[in-house]
Write a structure and sequence with these properties.
The protein is an alpha+beta fold. It folds into 3 domains: about 35-255, no CATH class; about 275-365, Phosphorylase Kinase, domain 1 (2-Layer Sandwich); about 370-570, Transferase(Phosphotransferase) domain 1 (Transferase(Phosphotransferase), domain 1). It contains 18 helices and 11 strands. The strands form 3 sheets. Strands 1-2-3-4-6-5 form a 6-stranded antiparallel sheet. Strand 3 (about 300-305) and strand 4 form a beta hairpin. It is rod-shaped and about 120 Å long.
Amino acid sequence: MPYGGEGDEAPTEKRPSASATEIERVAAAVERPSQGPSSQSASHGRSSDGTSGLSLSTPRETLLLQEIGRTRVFMRLAIGLAISQLAVLAVLGGDPLLKYAFVATALGVIVACAWMLGKLRDDAAYTMPRAVLAAYVCIAAAFAGIAYYGVFSPAASILPFGLFFFSTGQHARATQSVLVTCLVAYAALGLGIVLGVVPDRGLVTAASLGPFAKMVIVVVTESVFIGTYAIARATRSETLEAIARHDVVLRSLAQRDALLKEARQDLAQAMRVGGIGRYSGELVGPYRLGKVIGRGAMGEVYDARAAAGGGEAAVKLLHAELLAEPELVQRFFREAEIVGRLNCPNVVKLLESAGTTAPVPYLAMELLHGEDLAEYLRAHKRMPMRRVLTMLRQVGVGLDAARAAGVVHRDLKPRNLFLAKVGTQEIWKILDFGVSKLLAHDGTLTQGAIVGTPANMAPEQAAGEKVDHRADLFALGVIAYRALTGRPPFAGDTSVEILYKVVHAMPPRPSDVAIVGEEVELVLAIALAKSPDDRFDSAAELAQALDGASRGRLDERIASRARSVLEAMPWGYAG
């Protein structure tokens, strides 16, 4: 469509339902091994009560917190069972040596589990080596009890209980080692008695059973161990898949909500574009005006042609009711002054402007054919990395020209980036300098008001502070995030809510929203840094870093810089 030059970003399509690919990605992330809540994958957030270094942004982390809570319960049960067994042993007879061994290991369970409970007052203290240590102390006590009560007694039923608990843990190798330990230890005791190598000295013996019957009991008991382990692992796997699906659905809903909020901000504006305007068919200056191709707070943009057989143009008129406002008229002509300074192929070209004495103030711009970024994103939702890099480099040329001229655009957004078709080529152009700031001037003709589009403002701009070219670079980072993830980084129901997020919060972690590599996340973190000093100094620098990150070759100095930014203010949540 032709360049309209006015208005905010148009509505964006909603996010589709969760795909199998997304579920597989989440499930794959779930099964990455972790040494506990202090691992890197769980370090980018905190629980609501501030007691954990975890964020519930992945199913694996959710199950890890569940595992920690389950471990606390198991430790308490193990202590209670050990104490009850010590009380029972005080009145039972049996083999003295086996009894002493059982007492010693039961005391060991009490000490080990009490130590583990003490550590687990902090979730971050949970580690697999500590959990394995407590597990093996409990296994030792269980087999001491089996030997004391009898290898073929009901005492062996305690093992499936412990096996099921531990086999639902996250570390597959650790759970396998526990299973193998139980299988080998029980087989050694049982087969030792069957073969007559180990004496059956328990309270309950199988003296009345023949070797075959004893062998059957050993095999059946071992089968119960294996079955318990298999059920526990299958339960964990099904739970992970269910949480992964639930996670994808929640993020899809959050994505859709963010896009709907984004669309709501411009729906009325988009509905007003097109059709016949007040000046359609009129002659304004040398131009015959056609249909309205854009509307905004300041004026209308018409498709026009030079009446004397000249070329086409996009003619921008100030709203008639604003002509009595000198400051707004000055701002209107300020745009002509600014665009006239920027002789750059990546900035829309000014053809001419009316003088201040003209009956109807107007600006005539080159009429562009193609589509703006907002239209592209409505149609495709996301943009491939290669095209994002091309856009950043070309828009960067325009921003460099603006910087050299002492101009800050202050309203970069998808609607103001136009992919123009010039012959067989495509070129990105920056549009609408209506609220731009001339750094050489003391005033901005905005009377100290906050101007721009809330979702794309830099924090310092949203806070009403002084801005420079780095405010435009922040907006470009917002656009890059939007193009790569399919979601605006800052969304809300009201402008106040959006501005608060811009100033005080980081957007959702990109990989929680789309398939984005860690190094690309680091580049976006710098682009969206709250402090201008932490951001890139030019669009070319941003594009170069993003190019390297997309190929897994991000400069370590940039990576370190990004980690410092995220340490001060971590990514938010996709909710």
